[in-house]
Amino acid sequence: MELEKRPQGRAQEPPRRSDPEGCVAAAIRVPVRIVVLVLVVPVRMAWDLLVVVGRVLRDTVLRPVGRALAWLARALFVWPLVGVWRYLVVPLAKGAAWLGNVLLVVPAVWVYRWVLTPVGRALARCARVVAAVLAAVGRALYAVAAVLARCLVVVPALWLWSWVLTPVGHALAWCGRGLARCVRMIATGVGTTLYWTVRVLLVLPVLAVWRWVLAPVGRVLAVIGGEVLDALGHAWRIAGYVSLAVGRFLGTLFRWTVAEPARRVYQAVLTPVGHAVRDTVLRPLAEATRGAGRATRRALAAARLSVRQARADVRRVLFGNPPQARPVARREPSVAEARTLGSSTTALTKD
Fold first, then answer.
1. DSSP assignment string, 282-321
2. What is the mean pLDDT of the chain?
């Protein structure tokens, strides 16, 4: 039964490389990458260092200096120019526009409306009359000239064209076609000869050199160039990782050798000393300063009150006591007083 079974299919063959330059690429890939990596790592580290220094300079020096220069430029150039434009040029321009309108535009409009327009209309009417007369004269002259031209020019020209120029032209055309056919045959033979001469002597050798010399050399150089570019890309990325690792190591070293001791000194030494100085020196000094301020304010208030009282005493001695206002009764009148308005009679029993 097993012998009768047919094979399902051939075993899959391993995939073949499609690039014919595999050996050359494999031979030069590893040495080129090693050499390029050794050359690129210092360059990448120097580049990253320059980038860090440039960012620090940009944030700490160039940006504040640029802002200061921008503010100085605005203060020295922009704001004066804006002031001159707003408060000098614009008012002068408006005044000049109003003056030009009054002195030029209004008189020009008046002259155009009341002088030039009537004169132009009169001249237009005269021109239309003259044009009508001239048109009539021109039509008459044209008719006469047309008759003369037909009799003296057109009829002789037609006769000359029909009986002289046309037969001569046909003969010249037939001769020209024959001559052109001969020239074309000669040119075709010469061109074919030159074509095969150039093809055999120049084109075929150039094609052979291109196909069997330049093309293989170009492929090898292209493979080498591609490998060099790939090596540069890999080396640049690896150098970036190396530079990042070195930067992190230096950052960690700086943190554990400088920043962390400084932080601990600040927390363990400077902060308690600062608190002690604040509690023992600065706070009592501030309390004493505030107490002195309060005492000074109270003394100044007492001095102002004393000056005010002395001034009032001097005014009282010189001018006497000011007159006192009479008290005004605030009570409501009684019913009887309200009816008679405080008198013993009314309006009915007055007489």
1. IHHHHHHHHHHHHHHHHHHHHHHHHHHHHHHHHHHHHH-P
2. 81
